[in-house]
C-alpha cells in the first residue's frame, strides 16, 4: 500500500505517483495553497495542495498538527529557490492528489518548540517519542544492538537467556523482591546481573555466552540511574583477560566504525594506581589534558602546616593541577573552585598564579609565596611545566581527599576552560586492588567471584589488601562503558575470598552453595565482561541522559507517569501472596 | 591458544598438531593404551595416549569423567575398522603429546546413562546442560533467535525494549507483584506481555517494532508452563491482518527452511468455526486425518433419547468420528475411550463397528443398532465414508461437551492408531468471535484491544455475541505457535469494548486512561502478533517440554532447585519495603 517511507522520497522518485502514511508535522497556508510537512520515522517530506484540485484542498484545509493521514501524490522537483540540500527529500515536493484523514488529533499537551518538564514528557511519552530526535535515538539504539549481536555471534557467542525470577544476591539490599504465591512467605529477587548464571553456563561447557539483558537495582536514584537497565553481558571459557579485552575492544571499535565512521584505534591501558594518581579517577576522561602532579617531596620542610603535614604523612598527599591560562581567574572564581573542592572534603585550595615565567618568584602571585623558597617555587614551576598565564591549584590532605577533590576539580576545570581535546578517548583501566577497606572491613572492589592476579589462596589470605585482581574496565570519555574480570574457577580460592570478605562457611553455603558445588566438577577457567548499553548509546548519540535513549524510562523517583506505576495492589491479590503492607508512622 | 573446537577436528587436520580444551566424556584403558573421548560444545573427538610417551600416559591415567583438560596432539587417520562416518571427527583420532589437567571432577551426582529426576536435573543444571542433547538445544535456540532477528530487521523492524517493572494488567490475578521501596505500599507488576507498550510505540510512529522478550505469569503451573517465558513480539503500523500474516508466515517459513531444511509451503487458513466443527479445537493438528462429522440431522427422530435429545436441541450437537481400522477395538479399549471422553464431560460413547461394508446393517455391530433404521445406518456409513474394518464413535450432548470431548478423543485416537501424516502441518485460524460468554458474562477471546471485523462501535454494542474479531492464530501440529490481531485505534471503539466487558468508565480510566488518551492524538491503525519462542524451539528440536529448551527453568511448582529460589527475605529488607509476610492458618 505504502510506496516508501516519507523520509525516503528523493529525486529518484520524480515523476512517480507515491502513496504515503504519516503525521502532519506542520501546515502552512500560503495564499490558498496549502503546504504540509508529512512525517514518519524515516523523515519529513513536503506536500503541496493546489487550488486546481479543490476536493483534495478541502480535506487538506481540515488538517492540523499530528493528524494521521494517507496521502497520494506526484513527486516533482522543487522550485529552484526552495531546494534544501540538507534533507534527503529536500530537492522534491509532492503534489497531493488524494488525501484521507485516518485519525484526528487534539492539540498536543507537549509543545515541541519549547522545553517540556521531564514529568510531562514521560506522561505523554508516545508523543515525546514522535520528535525526530527521540525516534532517531531509538532507531540508533536498535542498530547498535543489531551490530553488537552480529559481531558476537560471528565470534561464536551464543545468546542464552538467564532467569529474571531468581535468588537474592549478596548486595541484597538493592534487590527488587517478588513474593511467591506458590511458596508463601518466600521471595524471588530480580537480578542485578546474570553473573552467577553466566558462570554456570561456562561450567556447563557453553564456551561463549552473551545476552543483551535487563538488570535491576532498587537504589536511591541518582541523576542518571534507572531501576531497570540493560547490559551487554558476555562470558568466555579458556580465555584470559587479554583474550576478553581483545574481543570486546574489537567489538566497540567495530561499532564506532560502522555507526559513527569513527576509528578508535588501539585502546591504551592504564593501571588503577596510575589512573588515580594522575587523574584522581578510576575512569579518567583522557580528552581532558589536566593532570594531578605530586609535589609532596618538594614540600616536606616548608613552614606551612597545610602542606608539610600531609607531605610527611604516609597516608597524606600533596598534588597540584596546572591550568593553562588559569592566571586570569578572578578571586571570586578561585573561591568558587575552593567551594567546589570542599564538596569532596578539601579544606582549602592553595594557588599560585604565573604572571611571568621569566621572572622567577617575582613573576608569581600567591598568598602562600611567603612560605615557599625560590628553590621550591622554581621546582614547582619546572615540574608542572607552568608558563606565563597559568595557575597552579594545590590539594593537600589525606590521599583520599586530595585524589577525589582534585579529580573532580580536574573535570570541572576541563569544561570551564574548554580544554577537552579529541572526540573519543577510550582506554582500559587494569590492575585494580582485589579489596577496598572501609572502616576496617574489606569489600570486593569488583565482586566476590573475581580472580586475584597470580596468587595462591594462602598468599591471598596472608595479604589481601595488597592483592591485585584480574579485572579490567573499559572507559570512554570519563564514562565506565563496561567492566569485567577473570573469574575464580577453583573452589579453594573461592572459599578464601569468601572468608576474607567475612562470609562464614554457613553463609557461603546458604548463599553460594551451588557455586561452590559447581566448582567441584571440572569447572573451566572463564572470564567475561558486561557493558552498560544505555550509557553506551547515550554517549554515541550525544544524549544528555540515559532516559533519552530508553523508550519508557522511569522518573528519578522510580515511577512511570505514563501508566501510573507503581500503584496500590488489589487486596485479594495481597492475600493470595500472603503479604500485607505496613503503615509506617510518618 | 585453542586450534579449534574438539567437534570440528576432521580429516582436513590430518598430520597437524592441534591444541584443544574440553571435558573427558569417556575414558577406556585397552591393554595399556588409553583412549579418551574429549568433548566440547561442538562435539567429541577421540584421543589416544600411547605407552611410547610415558609422561603423557601417566597424566592420562589420572583422568576421570568430566575432568577439564588441555590437550595437544597430532591428528591422524583412524585405523580402517574404527572409522565412524556418522561423526564429523569419526575418520580421525589424535595422538596425545601433551596433557594438562585444568580441573578435576568429583563423581557426578547425575548418571547420564539413565533417566534422572527433573528435580535432580535442575539442581545440577550446569551438569545436565553438558549433555550434548541439551547443549545442542540451547545452541539451536540461539540460532533461531539470531535468524528471527535478522529476518525482522531486514524487514524494517526495530528492536525496542519495553519495561519489566510496569503496571498491573486486567488479568491482574496472574501478575507477579514487585513492592516499591520509594513508593511504600505500592507495587509494580511484571508484564504478561508488552501489549500496551508496543501499541504506544506504534502511536509514537516507530512503525515496526519487535522484541524477543521475557513475559511473566503467576498461574498454577500446568505440565508445560513456566512462570517466565519468552515471546517473539512484534507490531506494525498501517498493515492489516493479511499484511501481518504475510510477514510472520514468511518468517516461520524462512526459519524452517534455514534451520531444518523443511519447505512449509503456503499456510492454509481456517475459520475458528470450521476448526471447532471439524476438529473440535481452535488449534487443530492437521497431521491427524480424523474429523468430527455432524449427524444430528439424521438422528432427530430416532427412538433413542441420547441421540434425539441433543439432535433437537439448538445448543446440542451429535457428531461422529470414523476411525479407520477401529473395528478391531476390544470391548475394553472402547471402555477406556469412553472413560477418556468422560474427562471432558461426555456421559457415554456410542459406537458402530463396520465388519462388512457390503452387507448393510447386517455387516454392522453395535448395541444401538436396534434404535436405528436401515436408512439411517446407510446414511451414517455414507456420510462418514466408513469401510470394512472401521468404527464410528458418537458424541451426543451439548455442543460444548461434544466438541471438546471428541476433539480430545480425536487426538488420542490419532496417536494410538498411528494415523499422523506428514511432519509439519501449519495453518492459520481466523475469524474468532470477539467475545466468549461464561455464565452470562462476556470475556474478550483475545484481549480487550482487539479490533472487531467491519463493525461500528454501535453495531458491536448491539450484538456483541455475534461479532467476529480481526484476530489470527498460527497453529503448527496442534500447537498454537503465536497469535495476534488488528488493534483498535479508535477511541469510541475502545470505549465500546470496555463497556461490553463490563469495565465502567472509572475503571477504564484508572486502568487504561493512558491508552484512551493516546487514541486522541492521531493514533494510526496497527496490528501485530506474538510467538511463544519456547514452544517454537521445543517443536523444532523435538524436545518433550519447554523446560528442555530453557537454560535454567523452574520446576512445576515454580521453584529453582539450583539456587533455592524463592527463599525467605531479610527482615530488614521487608521493613524497608514496608511489607510483612502473613502466616495463614494451615
CATH architecture assignment name of one domain in chain A: 2-Layer Sandwich
Oligomer: homodimer
Q: What share of the residues of chain A lie within helices?
A: 25-40%
| Secondary structure: number of strands of chain A | 24
Mean pLDDT of chain A: 95
> CATH topology of one domain in chain A, which one?
Gyrase A, domain 2
Give the DSSP E fraction of chain A (strand runs of 2 or more residues).
Answer: 15-25%
> Using only CA atoms, what is the Rg of chain A?
30 Å
The tally of helices of chain A reads: 16
The CATH fourth-level homologous superfamily of one domain in chain A: GAD-like domain
Distance between the termini of chain A: 60 Å
Chart the SSEs and their pairings.
The structure is a homodimer of 586-residue chains.
Chain A: E1 17-30, E2 33-40, E3 43-49, H1 54-62, E4 68-77, E5 92-103, H2 118-123, H3 125-128, H4 132-154, E6 158-159, E7 177-179, E8 186-189, H5 195-203, E9 208-216, E10 228-237, H6 241-260, E11 269-271, H7 272-279, E12 292-294, H8 305-311, E13 316-323, H9 331-343, E14 351-354, E15 364-365, H10 374-384, E16 391-398, H11 399-416, E17 426-430, E18 435-438, E19 441-444, H12 457-462, E20 471-476, E21 479-486, H13 491-500, H14 505-518, E22 526-532, H15 533-541, E23 567-568, H16 571-577, E24 579-581
Parallel strand pairs in A: 3-5, 6-9, 11-17
Antiparallel strand pairs in A: 1-2, 1-4, 2-3, 4-5, 7-8, 9-10, 10-22, 12-13, 13-16, 14-15, 14-16, 17-20, 18-19, 20-21, 21-22
Helix pairs in contact in A: 4-6, 9-11, 13-14
